[in-house]
């Protein structure tokens, strides 16, 4: 075994060519140094995890139902939790619900079930990077459709559906990661109708569903499709943004034939999601008053942090830097003047000891070089003020202008 690199290279499956280390990840490793301010990670705020409540509920479950909580359980998931999820989804019964180990696993299993090498998958531009990572090993061909402030452009979408007849389309209508966009009601309806017209199933990723700052939640694509007869939307959501991501409890809700295939795929992956964690999540969410208050705490904290970031952006950014003001979720999405490469900007920002995620990796078609994502969910007021001052300095320097503030 002289050269382990070449020994294994000749044995790895061809699909691993599409699983690569990201240069950005390498760069962001530098941000662990002391004094660094990073808005790169999309981590939910750890100060809002209901740690005490989780400790008490875990103890209760173990004392009262220890053997059940620690035993193997069914692939589909803990029945009371599946019932609770089904009760919140119009037209769904527990048989339509599969518990998964994070919605990330839902994306992987969906890819396994739907994508052959070369299958066309329609995605938003930009889209969630983790979904591209989950789908890539199944070797799809992406069809990217661009977006306006309301979400997918309908004319482009229809042309793409007609020309390509993709296997499915992957859509994030609510506080999209990375752009924070909220798709309006009319756009939602139109997309659901187009998908039905062209018989293209939708995979709806609703990880940020609960993180509205104000106002009433809009109906999900799943609900709108149900109103037209149902069967064309598979819905994905998670406890990662409302309770704690380390629990890895999420769910897929969909038509029975799809759930059946996902059950088989999950059996091969991990048999089932951790029984204790599923019981714990049910124990937490079944106390409706507490659960509502928990979500309210998160909404208020994120809205405050978002407002701090908005004022800092207004104060420190070059005037031709654009952004979407989030109405919920965890991210600001910035568009720099054409020609400013955000990977270069990241290198400049790192010299200032601040970091963000360049936008290009979120585009399956490789566009978006002048875009970037900032996360405010875990940041303090001081970090936001100082971090944006540093980013402003780096951006002004790249544009050859004098910084403000
Ligand atoms: C849009 C979206 N989908 C899915 C996930 C994965 O979430 P989890 O696997 O924690 O449920 C994330 C995490 O950031 C996300 O932003």
UniProtKB/TrEMBL annotation:
Q: What GO molecular-function term can you cite, just one?
A: 2-aminoadipate transaminase activity
Pfam families in alphabetical order: Aminotran_1_2 (PF00155)
Record GO biological process: alpha-amino acid metabolic process
Q: Cite the Gene3D superfamilies for this sequence.
A: Aspartate Aminotransferase, domain 1 (3.90.1150.10), Type I PLP-dependent aspartate aminotransferase-like (Major domain) (3.40.640.10)
InterPro entries, sorted: Aminotransferase_I/II_large, Class-I_PLP-dep_aminotransf, PyrdxlP-dep_Trfase, PyrdxlP-dep_Trfase_major, PyrdxlP-dep_Trfase_small
Q: Which domain of life is it from?
A: Bacteria
Annotated EC: 2.6.1.39
The entry's keywords: Aminotransferase, Pyridoxal phosphate, Transferase
- The broad enzyme category this protein falls into is transferase
Aminotransferase class I/classII large domain residues: 48-391
Q: Which cofactor does it need?
A: pyridoxal 5'-phosphate
Instruction: Please describe the quaternary structure of this protein.
Output: Homodimer.
Q: Which family does it belong to?
A: Belongs to the class-I pyridoxal-phosphate-dependent aminotransferase family.
Can you name this protein?
A: 2-aminoadipate transaminase
Organism, by scientific name, is Meiothermus luteus
């Amino acid at each position: 075994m002289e050269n382990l690199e070449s020994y294994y290279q000749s044995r790895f499956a061809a699909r691993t060519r599409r699983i690569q280390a990201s240069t950005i990840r390498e760069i962001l490793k530098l941000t662990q140094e002391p004094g660094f301010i990073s808005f790169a990670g999309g981590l939910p705020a750890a100060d809002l995890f209901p740690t005490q409540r989780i400790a008490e509920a875990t103890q209760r479950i173990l004392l009262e139902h220890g053997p059940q909580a620690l035993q193997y359980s069914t692939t589909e998931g803990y029945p009371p939790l599946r019932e609770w999820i089904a009760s919140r989804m119009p037209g769904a019964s527990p048989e339509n619900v599969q518990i998964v180990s994070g919605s990330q696993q839902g994306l992987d299993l969906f890819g396994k079930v739907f994508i052959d090498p070369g299958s066309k998958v329609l995605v938003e531009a930009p889209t969630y990077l983790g979904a591209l990572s989950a789908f890539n090993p199944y070797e799809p061909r992406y069809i990217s459709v661009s977006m306006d402030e309301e979400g997918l452009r309908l004319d482009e979408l229809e042309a793409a559906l007609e020309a390509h007849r993709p296997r499915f389309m992957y859509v994030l209508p609510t506080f999209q990661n990375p752009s924070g966009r909220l798709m309006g009601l009319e756009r939602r309806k139109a997309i659901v109708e187009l998908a039905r017209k062209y018989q293209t199933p939708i995979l709806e990723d609703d990880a940020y569903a609960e993180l509205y700052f104000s106002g009433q939640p809009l109906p999900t694509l799943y609900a709108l499709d149900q109103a037209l007869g149902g069967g064309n939307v598979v819905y994905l959501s998670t406890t990662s943004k409302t309770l704690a991501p380390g629990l890895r409890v999420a769910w897929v809700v969909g038509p029975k034939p799809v759930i059946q295939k996902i059950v088989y795929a999950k059996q091969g992956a991990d048999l089932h999601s951790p029984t204790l964690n599923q019981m714990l999540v049910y124990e937490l969410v079944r106390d409706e008053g507490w659960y509502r208050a928990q979500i309210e705490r998160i909404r208020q904290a994120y809205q405050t942090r978002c407002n701090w970031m908005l004022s800092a952006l207004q104060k420190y950014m070059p005037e031709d830097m654009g952004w979407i003001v989030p109405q919920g979720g965890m991210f600001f999405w910035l568009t720099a003047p054409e020609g400013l490469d955000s990977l270069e900007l990241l290198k400049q920002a790192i010299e200032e000891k601040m970091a963000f995620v360049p936008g290009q990796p979120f585009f399956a078609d490789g566009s978006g070089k002048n875009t970037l994502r900032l996360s405010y969910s875990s940041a303090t007021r001081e970090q936001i003020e100082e971090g944006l001052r540093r980013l402003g300095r780096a951006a002004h320097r790249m544009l050859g202008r004098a910084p403000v503030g």
